[in-house]
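Lab notebook, bench 4. The sequencing result for the construct came back, and we need a structural model before the next group meeting so we can plan mutations. Quick request posted to the team channel:

Model the 3D structure of this chain.
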Amino acid sequence: MEIAGKGALVTGAAKRIGRAIALALAERGADVVVHYHRSEAAAHETARAIEALGVRALVLPADLANVREIERLIERAADFLGRLDILVNNASVFFRTPFGSTTEEEWDVHLDVNLKAPFFCAQYAARIMQKQGGGKIINIADWAGFRPYVGYIPYCISKAGVIALTQVLARTLAPTILVNAVAPGPVLLPEEYGEEEVRAILAGTPLKRLGAPEDVVRAVLFLIEGSDFITGHTLVVDGGRLIGP
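Done. Here's the predicted structure in token form:
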């Protein structure tokens, strides 16, 4: 798919990897809807950066744990864009949930935002894409969906679900809508990680360094514009972490 002239929605696009993806799509000529939940100021900053590239941008809020807000987000995005060619399900929550003290609320927020939301975003977006004759959906998973780690059980389960969701959506929406995922590894570590945790991650990563948002962006762009013969695939971008010790 050629990105220039297309309409894209990126969830969680205010900051970090979502912002990088939104800007990369804009650089290639797409109009972009920037979704946010709480980071309003950062979302508007991202939109201004997109508009400076000569394309259109719209900032839309939505609580992705609420299906009605998801439906409204997709409808408003499509109205602004005039079409919807690309959906990037990037928004996610990630925080420590030690076994034995995990609450129902913590479980629900992980599964709602990380798994339920991508499904319903895809369901509503697919209706529009099918009428247009096609589109591409990219889900942002995580290497921990393949190899979970201790202390983040709901998160790991939600990302494993995203990998399965990618496969079942690819089969359901073929041949007109292609659905793939990118599973980042150690990229933009949480701010609360200490030096000891960072050293352990580097020791377990064969390339012995952290990734950058650009590494994830390049994978997303490849799945959108690099090939129209890939669907149901999860591209792991982790410096070899998945095969590390």
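The chain has a mean pLDDT of 97.
Will bring this to the meeting.
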